[in-house]
Structures are given as structure tokens and as C-alpha cells.
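Exercise 7.
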Amino acid sequence: MDNAVDFERVKEEFSNADLDRKVQMYVSAEGLTQDQYRDLLKLFPTDQLSLLEQALQ
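Solution. The predicted structure, written as C-alpha cells, is:
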């Protein structure tokens, strides 16, 4: 499977997910590059970053 195409699907799913699902997807994502994690983080609502920080601890 083409990683670039697969990541585009992940980004689309992440973008359409509710906040709880976004947190779960980000925390459980495996095999992504640093740039891919950064791309997902750009799609996360900045006013809710504290929820993501708590989940990552």
C-alpha cells in the first residue's frame, strides 16, 4: 500500500472525526513520520490541545 495515499485517507478521517476520535487517532497512530504527525496536529482544534496533551501523558 502506498504510504502517501494511505496517509491522505488518515488525514481525511482525522479531519472529519469528532474531538474524542481525533485524540484517540493521534495517540494510537503508529508508523507515521514526524511530518505526518505534525500534519495531523495542524488539523487539531488549537483551543482543545490540552485534551491531547493529557492523553499523551
